[in-house]
Amino acid sequence: MVELRGGRLALVVVAFMAGAAAPTAWVMADSGPPKGVFDEISVKRINIVEPDGKYRLVLANSERFPGLFMEGKEYKHHSRDGGGMLFFNDEGDEVGGLTFGSKTVGDDRRASGSLMFDQYKQDQTVGIQYNEANGKRTAGLRVWDRPDWSIKPLMEMSAQAAAASDDAAKNRIREEMRAFAMANGGGGAERFFAGKALEDTIVRLADKSGKPRLLLKVDAKGEPSIEFLDDMGKVVKRITQ
Question: Which of 188, 59, 62, 184 is nearest to 118 (CA)?
Fold first, then answer.
């Protein structure tokens, strides 16, 4: 259908393909590029990119989910196998994402979901996370301390591990990754958690090494408490109702 309105020419084409679940309409106007209107689409991956081609957002299934990114370059992940959404900053770095998954093998049942935001050139620094293993569940808000160094070398090693010929070689490179992080002061530590841990509701504050030092808790019986811990994890003071 060709229609002239107010000096603007619009061409609307509606195509019904054999076996298609929904019609597709393409609208082209003199004001810009064509825009598609869909009732329903099924895809394995969607890339939102900037004018220079850098990713801004990727939404993908487990098969097409991207690896690790730094400065616009992709490094294969040595263990990532889920689907979800990945966020990118102006420099082409991966800066967090939304992931979720589940797995059942016999009587073993596991599930997880997380929304993470990464520190600049580093790993996640704040996130909302849920984990379940055979009915034992933890869910809450977490905050991590991360070092100042870039994790690009770890991304490079991750790609090497992903390309390893066997599990022994892959595990060896993973150990090298851990050793690299420890040699540079460690990969960081969880400083804050607020949420549900098994049957308790807790707020946990930790020191820079990740050791819990203050614990606010309401246990499964509804009993509230405040615990102060030393650097060895021993409760040195406990306040109850």
Answer: 188
